[in-house]
Amino acid sequence: MNNLIATIATITLLLFTQCHYAQAQEAGGAAPVATEQAATAAATGGAAASLPADSTDEALLADSAGIDLAEVPDSTLAPVESVGFHKMLKTKYIEGSAGFMSFVALALVLGLAFCIERIIYLTLSEINAKKLMADLESQIMQGDIEGAKTTCRDTRGPVASICYQGLSRIDESMEDIERSITSYGTVQAANLEKGCSWITLFIAMAPSLGFLGTVIGMVMAFEQIQQAGDISPTIVAAGMKVALITTIFGLIAALILQVFYNYILSKIEHITSQMEESAITLLDIIMKYKLTK
């Protein structure tokens, strides 16, 4: 668990560093562009000053030839580049205050870590319960109780553990066997739901952090209005942008975690139903074994 937390913290730190580096890089890229534009303007101005006096005649000649100089494309215009999803996401992350947005990202990463751990655990806990019960029935009816116990020990999952618990008390009364299976089934059900409370915590935290960003953005907007002494869209835009972006990211994180959480609940319900069905089947098999014994 400590290694998992350390890995998640490292990933979050790298993401935070990359966003700040991209922000500094975008800010530093404005100066070379301005210098290039100034050099282009100087070159254009020098060329215009060095035109000979007969440039008017050349313009008249172009008009007489039917050439519209205004339609000539400007070769100095830079081509428009399409913005990728990753770059757009990184830009919005920075615009929403990278320091505050890191808390939303941390809630998403930690929530996904618990979701992945539960999904792996539940996937490994699923078995073919009907095949297991058929094998146990064949071994029990033949009197091979130790072989049935070995089959349960070699099979992973809570279903096999419950069956082993019942077989270990096969010489006792049916009431004691049923009580033992029920008690151990409760323990196994609690193990299936282990860690789900943390997932619900991060589902609640993500939109709450987004709404907190909304309040902080509104406070920033009112502070800018107070400093400027005027209400205008340009003054309020920065604070409102932070408010809306943090809210959007918080809601998206909560929606992602909610989808994984519902998937986990469906797997827990499936395994729980397998446990109940297998417990009833095992009690019936033990009853038949006792009657034929």
SSE map:
Layout: H1 2-28, H2 30-49, H3 55-64, H4 85-95, H5 98-125, H6 129-141, H7 145-154, H8 158-167, H9 174-192, H10 196-228, H11 233-292
The largest β sheet comes out as: none
Using only C-alpha atoms, the radius of gyration works out to 35 Å
**Number of E-state strands:** 0
Tally of contiguous helical segments: 11
Helix-strand string: HHHHHHHHHHH
Distance between the termini: 49 Å
Structural class: mainly alpha
Q: Tell me what portion of residues adopts beta-strand conformation.
A: under 5%
| Unreliable residue stretches | 20-81
Relative helix content: over 70%
Give the overall form.
rod-shaped
Average of the residue pLDDT scores: 74
General description of the model:
With 293 residues, the chain is mostly helical. 82% of the residues lie in helices and 0% in strands. The chain contains eleven helices and no strands. It has helices at residues 2-28, 30-49, 55-64, 85-95, 98-125, 129-141, 145-154, 158-167, 174-192, 196-228, 233-292. The longest helix has 60 residues, at 233-292.
